[in-house]
């Protein structure tokens, strides 16, 4: 059977998808577009070839670019693109509060990453990973920020993973062709699972002839020579369950942090994170897990030393901004911008004022002296950031030691009131000798914060009518740990407002005092 017939069957199905291909395999896009009615299937296609392109697309780099975890992240991003495009289309084609159109009831993202022949030395073999992320969607799937999951049916989907080694006998062009066919096979296999738009023999026509019906993944020389067949049967795993709508996905992830109790040998601290595209990262929870390249994080020594900048030093700056954000207001966002300006003025970055900065807002599920925050309340706070395209994490980390474990290499953006507690020796030692207590504090901060590549960026604050404005210049810090603190002056940032004041003003608007209307 011809490849054109296969693609016609794909276009005739209700499956709609986006592609995110890292490296080889871009020919799959051309194959799809060369057959009529491609717009029925393909929503968007992205080909990432440079590391910087991948970092931008995924809002970070996986530890290993050629891995099943990287393929999943690419597929997740592609699904998010599909949902965004379908959402825009649904708003145009359907009246408000009316059921979304039936066309495109299956949405997917396809991610592919591969290692093919190259002139550079490489430890891994030639191989390709493809992931498919998605499933049957429901009308509310198109509302990216809906929070009322209790009244909505959950749209459940799955993730399928494909993996294949490529024989050394193939040249670079031949391997690229195999990646292309692998992507097309994953799409056809998805059509076969969901809609059966064509006979199985057609939808599986890219498999090697001699291996049909076999679960073997061994290479087949004869099949490798055929330009329109895979050289082996790909290894298939899955499905891994996912929620296709934001509300259920968010609630499930947050509840997992709220109810977390570490098993023996498991970490004490956990975190779920949404990147700036609203894509969930969830450690040790398939298919959302995966290691990220923390080696690209700058360290306080590199960022704040007076030594000449080097290539190694010019790595992205990463900030973690802990807070309750109830609500998020302009004081928070202005403090972030001030911190970025200050860090870019440090000696190592003065010749590159546009060094990339990644900011993650962090909400701890339990607040010291206040107890746990309700899941629905946390959802509302997280949604503030997703609507703005900001990174946000929900953690169980109440101490900075725990935050440093979860976010090594990050600068912690804090206020002066918090900084006062950070350098208070009573939190580090029970000794009545002030010198011993201070030594314990210095050792703890260097070991638990500095040695993990973390540091503090401190903003000023109007403390009280008597104390007035305070910033890092008013705080006494031992010389041994002074390098762990970067101050933001009042010239860079000064906003005399708090979330508490904003909540009080909102309550006053909603519930005005009855005496205010007594003379009307």
Automatic annotation (TrEMBL):
Cellular component GO terms, alphabetical: cytoplasm; nucleus
Domain of life from the UniProt record: Eukaryota
A GO molecular-function annotation: ATP hydrolysis activity
The protein's name: Cytidyltransferase-like domain-containing protein
